[in-house]
Amino acid sequence: MTAAVVMxxxxxxxxxxxxxxxxxxxxxxxIAFSNSLGFLPVGNFAVSNWFVKKxxxxxxxxSGGISLCGLLVPVLTWxxxxxxxxxxxxxxxxxxxxxxxxLAMVIRNxxxxxxxxxxxxxxxxxxxxxxxxxxxxxxxxxxxxxxIGQAVHTRSFWLFSTSLIIPYMCNAAxxxxxxxxxxxxxxxxxxxxxxxxxxxxLSGVGRVGFGCLSDRFSKRYLMAIAMASQCSGVLVFxxxxxxxxxxxxxxxFGVGYGGMNPLRAAIQGEYFGTVAxxxxxxxxxGIWSVGTMLGPVLAGRFFDVTSDYRRVFMMLGVAAMSxxxxxxxxxxxxxxxxxx
Length: 340
Prior knowledge:
- Helix content is about 70%, strand content about 0%.
- It is mainly alpha-helical and about 350 residues long.
- The chain has 2 domains: about 1-115, no CATH class; about 145-330, Growth Hormone, Chain: A (Up-down Bundle).
């Protein structure tokens, strides 16, 4: 995480120096790689190791922090207007170093090397060992642990991974094309920007709320509810013709999209344990990235051909609703002999 913060800050400083389209693409890929290297995936790994009974709310709070980024949009906009985007990029990069590096350095992978157990428990006899020599979870966690090979040979893994591909395709397409669509629907630019900010902030409600609920109720049922809310939001989005219609879209999509994030990590931890959490998560993210890469491209191509966003978002919403929900509802925890 420390390395990722340093790289990400450097990426924004490099962004301030670009003078060509090729340079922009190169820096963009560097920033994207840095962000993937050390933020939410690493945070999910650490939190899942430190919590078992309260893992859902802990992941919800972690994920909910992301929604607060919407509050920085007006600040960055003011800096760009006042000093220009190049100066704003430099300030953002240096700010990441000043704030992010000290915080990243206090992250610890697991509680066991420090004589502790998850959820703040302190065992009677668990001598403290060096952090580098205790990289596996304690057997007292009460969770079944899967290796990568064991996980990918379960039916649950493939139901879980495939159920989220089209919802993530919807998310990526919507976030990339949200403002152009709203402008085409007659929503002013300033209002469209506020819709984006509001959607991100409302996602925080879903992140924390569904995270709390996941400690009490079935995670797969909650994921199905979050998916249904997100897909319903996409369908409402496809039919926006007036300003008031953005409100149900923001609530349905924001809360549903936000709720899916902590539930994703909570389900993984519950189903496959934490001994190979990072590696399993990496494979899952790689599968889901197929949807996030295809979504914006397909929506953009469809618009170029038809000059219409509505039909493509209707199709994405219906496809996600009809495919993701059955797959998620069928995704039960893996049985001891569950193999595909």
